Amino acid sequence: MADQAFDQDAWERRWAQVLRDHQDKVASRPPNPLLLREVGGLSPGRALDAGCGHGAEAIWLAAAGWHVIAVDFSASALEHGRTTVEALGDGLAGDIEWIEADLGAWTPPAAQFDLVSSLYVHVAGSVGAMVTRLGSGVAPGGTLLLAGHRPIVPETGEPSPAAGQQQVCVEDALAVLDADAWDIVVAEERPRAVAGSGVDAVVRAVRRPA
Length: 210
Ligand SMILES: C[S@@+](CC[C@H](N)C(=O)[O-])C[C@H]1O[C@@H](n2cnc3c(N)ncnc32)[C@H](O)[C@@H]1O
Hints:
Strand order of the largest sheet: 3-2-1-4-5-7-6
CATH class: Alpha Beta
CATH topology: Rossmann fold
Strand content: 25-35%
Bound molecules: S-adenosylmethionine
Largest sheet: 7 strands, mixed
Structural class: alpha/beta
Distance between the termini: 44 Å
CATH superfamily: Vaccinia Virus protein VP39
Oligomer: single chain
CATH architecture: 3-Layer(aba) Sandwich
Radius of gyration: 16 Å
Helix content: 25-40%
Number of domains: 1
């Protein structure tokens, strides 16, 4: 899989096909349990879901009382999220803004969010630069939640079938989260549910009040 592309065209084609062939399955996919576990206890405020995909997490956050900015560079994924929340018809649609942008360059408005969450997004450039950009959006007292799939088999250190992808890893994230500015609450690798599919790097940090 090392030659698989994860750029905008590739993701847009992937989402267009998945939504064409498996729309019902995608629509019924629950939000990622990692998000629920890590931020389920926070008081709602303004949230950024960076790399929101088809929107299950953004919609869950909105239902929990957050006002959400949901960013992705796949127009098809964003459209699916938008129509899904509109179809729910319970007023949630107004709590989510869907923005098409490339997280390789897009920088959130500074210190605006009580939560910035970015789950399983492939990074084209430097992980540290993306973590820095996303972290800049977190308000004092706010939370930064990052998860990345690390494509190794934990027992052997060998590449898993997803090798060739670059996502957030603990070391690169911690390298740019200045200890004077951030309290690191979680920084660990967790085995994934499917054996042999690698590990999840999970980082949760809270920006110290200025
Ligand atoms: C593996 S999916 C994860 C989606 C969702 N966060 C989740 O946990 O189910 C990665 C998502 O990130 C988006 N993505 C990848 N690179 C991106 C970039 N540079 N800018 C914006 N979105 C990106 C893809 O379009 C895709 O929707």
